[in-house]
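seq:
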Amino acid sequence: MINRLLVANRGEIARRVFRTCRSAGISTVAVFSDADADAPHVAEADLAVRLRGVRPAETYLDIERILDACRATAADAVHPGYGFLSENADFAQAVLDAGLVWVGPPPAAIAAMGSKIEAKRLMAEAGVPVLPSLDVAAPGEFPVLVKASSGGGGRGMRIVREPGELAREVESARREAASAFGDGEVFVEPLLETARHVEVQVLADRHGQVWALGERECSVQRRHQKVVEECPSPGISPEMRERLCEAAVRAARTIGYVGAGTVEFLVKGDRVAFLEMNTRLQVEHPVTELVYGVDLVRLQLEVAEGAPLPASPPEPAGHAVEVRLYAEDSDYVPQTGVLRRFEVAGDVRVDSGVESGSVVSPHYDAMLAKVVAHGPSRAEAVRKLVTALRRARLHGLTTNRDLLLRILTSPDFQAGATHTDFLSPTGPITPNAALDGAISSNTDPPGPFRSNAEPGALKGAQSPIGGIRSDAVMWGLAGLAAALAVAAGNRDRATVLASLPGGWRNVRSAPRRAVFEEAEVVYDPLPDGVTTVSASPHRVVLERDGVRHTFDIARYEPDGKVYVDHADGCAELTPLPRLPEPVDHVAPGSLLAPMPGNVLRVEVEPGDRVTKGQAVLVLEAMKMEHRIAAPADGVVSGVHVEKGRQVEAGAVLAIIQEGDR
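struct:
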């Protein structure tokens, strides 16, 4: 029996495992890096051990330090979570050699599937269909996909469409894979475009029983990382489901698998191709849990203790959809800083690694949470999820919430027509396009309301199911609410003449207005048809054409940013000071660091001519490489960093002078 379990991981998955351990009466141990000292998973564990440092290689990837933590806390079992050491056969063997219980598959099974190259060979011998592996230096066909042999999560993967790009992308994939997994080996296979990415959840015990718990659809991806997952797949027939489950069980039996794992496939029409087997619990496991009514972590623990599985798995019921909520902008650039407020309510499951006040650092993945909805039908599950996302309170960091809402409410997604190119430039959703319903020149928000942003760039109160006018109206009302709340707050803080109403004058000479970075709002007098029911610094109730709208307001220092939450979404506005402080001048054409990171490579020198989109340098942040490209044709007039330098967000990296000079 397991009495004290150490989770060799962090964040959301550590909290997820701890939750099951608490219900099973198992004591828990967390490990944490210096950057995670105040993380929620540390506070939730019964015991916690600091791993000095911040880099994964010196903390969560250091096998000896993890084992030292086990000895220091008398832990008798280890759960690896996902990522980091979860698919490291040497780690699994070291845990067993230390006399501890390993909550995972046998080291030999991990080793067999740990190399995707070897895994494809084994699966082909077992009769599981696979894509051919091509020559890394000369594949002979394009487009191709470069893939890391170890690990997952989209790291070490590159699409290559032209021969001239191959060597650069292979080298980039090798560096990223080596940094994330400690193994820089890559391989190349044909790119099967517009296919479905479908995976089968397997669970096996030590007594020869192997379950296939249906399939999950994971086709909606960005940067080869899954964004939306659901169970069951909306595009798989019963016959195809049976075929996939049989192949997955065959794969598990071939390598003597024990525990929870996932067998992944590409499906296009009747064509099926094995992708890989993940010898661990997957990020998206909650959708399977909700549909099959199981706790996969509890089953992992029971299997590790030697218990047999029942003869057959439970029957599925309903449909579940999960989205991954990331701190990132519309270009998928990770965001760092303080998450001021994190509240997601509704009939949804929220598995998160953060809470209000958490700091998102540049050292690890930017995922904040998984939000999952279950219902008797796919449509109901999606509706629950949309409502929860629209009403979530997410303050302090830019997130991908708007993108998730656009995906979930798009006609193609609702029809189940998803594929791996769903978020590509040619797919039905263009991630960084102007948001549906954002203010543009032909909209008519209520009253004197002028945008200070370019059309489509507003961070408005999005109502993805509504029309353009509906969104414009809500954005206008949100601006009014923000202005009224700021005025009420100023009045509350007044130190003189506090009994007088705000903006009081003997002779009114001009309307009262609030100026934000995003918009300018006249709030006294109010626009025709709008009345104030109540206004305080934290809540404003407005009535327009007989309909009342309630807005919750939050304001944060030092920049005074105002968040206006409504049932239809959230608006963010930044008040502009009356007397702005002088600011540092940034030279035209400056390329600024989008996030804190380490300069991996500088690809230009002063005087070089560059073309729009050409790589200028590469930053590494959050275990991913981020290419910084020239915004236009021009000449490099200055390079301000060198390889190996750590830079902060907003630092000037290089200067591109447009034109020929």
